[in-house]
């Protein structure tokens, strides 16, 4: 084995072999992927390609690694509590079970007794804090008065606040928050460009040294694994370039991340566990300093069990993968280093566009930023609606029998109520299907074994809206189809068969139900079949939402 040598091949040789395997299909369209940021993802990355895109790979890696506080990260899982006593009890229990920070979300501030503040003070000296306070007079902030000068110097962490507050020296309060941009539908380029613009705006009001000492940044991490790794690595490179533009050395900034709810769904919510695990591992490999996993039932009613599972997502990665012992596990990857550089260049260009338009506050005020983000969000929504992007259990492989739960996001998480989610239109479809009864069927014009792929596709297509069609027996003539549709009192039917069989049977149909056919049919042929009751065709790439809304409109109000 040690003596085996594999032959070396060039990219061009590999490409020729790939083109031969594609048998005439367009290499560029099939093998290359265009991201929402208009970046082309190559099917293969080589050392030569990396060296062309990144002028100094070692320097880029060094910048990324110098920005990290250590090889590991803080497990910062949020808790749910209704008063100070419950908060302390749950926090102490969580810390004993693997949580590594005192996490407080104060949408509804608690009343604290002096004894309770004393217990909290003992915790924050031993564990970093991650506080979200909605007002500068939140009673929890009195905990700092319980600390001696020596104890105050031991307190570390971050505070999310919109108002200036007094905090220990090692607690950062200058949040650069990219979550609003992300939750509004922004791309990675939007997030990074906006982060730099927010920093530039802050530095107009404060001197560089004092502002940089208080900066910390928060990112949501989505399910695009390699792209999200590159996003956070790109931020560290951008921060270094930003400081150089100010003639300053780049101090380290804590990067806190959390799983994005953009891909979370109320439908088949256990799939959210997989999304959370994927996003968390990318955040870890990217070098996050602190991370939060939202429970899989975050959009409905999180339980103690779901919170424990969310915490264990991080603990499994930390304890069993050993990546917490590696400062930059992604370093040197041809793909990731190239993508990191592309995000750096794209985000810096976008940052300059924002500055030329008047800066962060101005582009928000005029709607310039909102319009730009919205255009990209509509594009992303269209990809999901056409199934060019998948949401497992939502727009594909849906379970039509699954009940749809109403959203009951905790008051501490109101910022997520307005977050744009790709699953929302499909959840509305399923909610409508609860109120509507559509009698439907997949009609077999040939034996099942001949048309099973068509039948499976149609059933999967309709299941997205919670519609469960019957499967007819093999019907070999138009008379049999007419009798079946009438006897079953169908509102909607989809015919499955070859083009030859369709052309034989459809001209003899006489039905009142709405009828579609499986497979892509040209508009001229559909028009000629219209008098026989055929309205449309179902095929891969058909816009789901518009079509399923039309099918649901054929039904009757459910009893």
Account of the 3D structure:
- It holds the Pfam family MM_CoA_mutase.
- Residues 172-443 form the Methylmalonyl-CoA mutase alpha/beta chain catalytic domain.
- This is Methylmalonyl-CoA mutase.
- GO terms for molecular function: cobalamin binding; intramolecular transferase activity.
- The protein has 559 residues and is an alpha/beta fold.
- The protein folds into 3 domains: 72-172, no CATH class; 173-426, TIM Barrel, CATH 3.20.20; 435-557, Cobalamin-binding domain (Rossmann fold), CATH 3.40.50.280.
- Helices cover 46% and strands 13% of the residues.
- The protein contains 22 helices and 18 strands.
- The protein has helices at residues 11-22, 27-31, 47-53, 57-66, 84-96, 114-126, 149-154, 179-183, 188-203, 208-214, 225-245, 271-286, 304-320, 334-356, 360-366, 368-385, 424-435, 448-463, 478-487, 499-505, 523-529, 544-552, and strands at residues 33-34, 40-41, 74-75, 102-106, 129-133, 157-160, 171-172, 174-177, 215-221, 255-259, 290-292, 436-437, 440-444, 470-474, 492-496, 514-518, 534-538, 556-557.
- It has a 5-stranded parallel sheet. It has a 5-stranded parallel sheet with strand order 14-13-15-16-17, sandwiched between helices.
- Strand 13, helix 18 and strand 14 (470-474) form a beta-alpha-beta unit.
- Helix 3 (47-53) packs parallel to helix 14 (334-356), helix 12 packs parallel to helix 13 and helix 17 (424-435) runs parallel beside helix 22.
- The radius of gyration is 28 Å and the shape is globular.
- The model has no long low-confidence stretch (mean pLDDT 93).
């Amino acid at each position: 084995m040690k003596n085996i040598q594999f032959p070396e091949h060039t990219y061009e040789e590999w490409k020729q072999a790939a083109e031969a395997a594609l048998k005439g299909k367009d290499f560029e369209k099939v093998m290359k992927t265009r991201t929402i940021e208009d970046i082309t993802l190559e099917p293969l990355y080589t050392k030569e390609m990396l060296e062309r895109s990144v002028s100094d790979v070692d320097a880029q890696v060094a910048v990324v690694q110098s920005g990290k506080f250590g090889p590991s990260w803080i497990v910062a899982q949020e808790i749910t509590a209704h008063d100070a006593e419950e908060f302390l009890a749950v926090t102490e229990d969580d810390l004993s079970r693997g949580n590594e920070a005192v996490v407080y979300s104060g949408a509804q501030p608690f009343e604290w007794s002096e004894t309770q503040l004393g217990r909290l003070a003992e915790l924050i000296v031993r564990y970093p804090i991650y506080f979200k306070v909605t007002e500068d007079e939140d009673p929890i902030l009195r905990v700092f008065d319980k600390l001696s000068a020596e104890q105050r110097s031991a307190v570390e962490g971050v505070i999310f606040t919109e108002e200036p507050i007094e905090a220990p020296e090692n607690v950062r309060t200058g949040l650069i928050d990219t979550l609003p941009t992300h939750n509004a539908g922004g791309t990675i380029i939007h997030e990074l460009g906006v982060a730099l613009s927010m920093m530039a705006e802050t530095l107009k009001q404060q001197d560089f040294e004092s502002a940089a000492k208080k900066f910390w940044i928060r990112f949501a991490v989505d399910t695009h694994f390699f792209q999200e790794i590159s996003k956070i690595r790109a931020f560290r490179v951008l921060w270094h370039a930003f400081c150089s533009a100010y003639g300053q050395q780049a101090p380290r900034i804590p990067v806190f991340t959390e799983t994005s709810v953009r891909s979370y769904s109320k439908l088949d919510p256990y799939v959210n566990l997989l999304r959370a695990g994927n996003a968390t591992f990318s955040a870890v490999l990217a070098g996050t300093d602190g991370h939060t996993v939202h429970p899989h039932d975050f959009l409905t009613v999180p339980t103690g069990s779901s919170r424990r599972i969310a915490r264990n997502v991080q603990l499994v990665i930390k304890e069993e993968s050993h990546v917490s012992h590696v400062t930059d596990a992604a370093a040197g990857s041809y793909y990731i280093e190239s993508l990191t550089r592309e995000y750096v260049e794209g985000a810096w260009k976008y940052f300059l566009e924002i500055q030329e338009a008047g800066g962060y506050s101005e582009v928000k005020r005029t709607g310039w930023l909102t319009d730009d983000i919205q255009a990209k969000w509509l594009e992303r929504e269209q990809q999901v609606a056409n199934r060019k992007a998948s949401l497992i259990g939502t727009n594909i492989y849906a379970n039509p029998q699954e009940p749809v739960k109403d959203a009951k996001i905790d008051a501490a998480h109101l910022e997520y109520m307005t977050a744009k989610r790709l699953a929302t239109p499909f959840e509305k479809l399923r909610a409508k299907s609860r109120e509507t009864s559509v009698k439907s069927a997949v009609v077999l014009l040939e034996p099942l074994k001949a048309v099973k792929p068509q039948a499976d596709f149609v059933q999967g297509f309709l299941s997205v809206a919670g519609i469960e069609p019957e499967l007819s027996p093999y019907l070999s003539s138009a008379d049999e189809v007419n009798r079946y549709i009438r006897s079953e009192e169908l509102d909607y039917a989809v015919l499955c068969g070859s083009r030859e069989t369709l052309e034989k049977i459809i001209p003899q149909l006489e039905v009142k139900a709405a009828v579609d056919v499986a497979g892509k049919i040209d508009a001229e042929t559909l028009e000629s079949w219209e008098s026989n009751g055929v309205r449309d065709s179902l095929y891969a790439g058909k816009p789901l939402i518009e079509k399923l809304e039309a099918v649901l409109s054929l039904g009757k109000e459910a009893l």
